[in-house]
Specification:
With 134 residues, this protein is mainly alpha-helical. The protein is 71% helix and 3% strand. The longest helix has 30 residues.
């Protein structure tokens, strides 16, 4: 679920990045790049989910809203901000277009992505799984 949501987000946000995101004007190349980026985003979400389950000793933490959700909601945007800063300002892996809203030097779009989409994926998965058991 996280992969599908993030891939759709990545593709709709292309205009917010220079040269279709990562230095290319070729649409097929952009698809390949953002497919790869989406896999990394999904793995990042999975890593945070698993880390919370491990450290909190509660693998079913998404079933109820507690401190695990707060950690989840904070960890991913912070991690994303670090990735963005490193990738944009330190190594120049990608750049923002002039229309990208910026917050403290970081693009707003990737921060919102990691704030909302992982939670939406967990909630949607939880809903689908609970309906499949009925």
């Amino acid at each position: 679920m996280a992969f599908l949501l993030n891939f759709a987000w990545e593709m709709t946000q292309l205009p917010l990045y220079s040269e279709i995101g990562l230095g290319t004007r070729d649409y097929v190349e952009a698809l390949k790049i953002h497919w790869d980026v989406t896999i990394k985003d999904s793995l990042m979400i999975l890593a945070v989910y698993l880390a919370i389950g491990f450290f909190m000793r509660n693998w079913g933490w998404p079933k109820s809203f507690g401190k695990e959700w707060l950690i989840f909601l904070l960890a991913l945007p912070i991690w994303q901000a670090i990735i963005e800063y490193y990738s944009v300002y330190l190594i120049g892996r990608w750049a923002y277009a002039e229309i990208m809203p910026i917050v403290l030097g970081i693009g707003l779009s990737p921060l919102l992505q990691m704030l909302f989409l992982p939670s939406a994926a967990l909630l949607l998965s939880r809903h689908l799984l609970s309906n499949s058991r009925e």
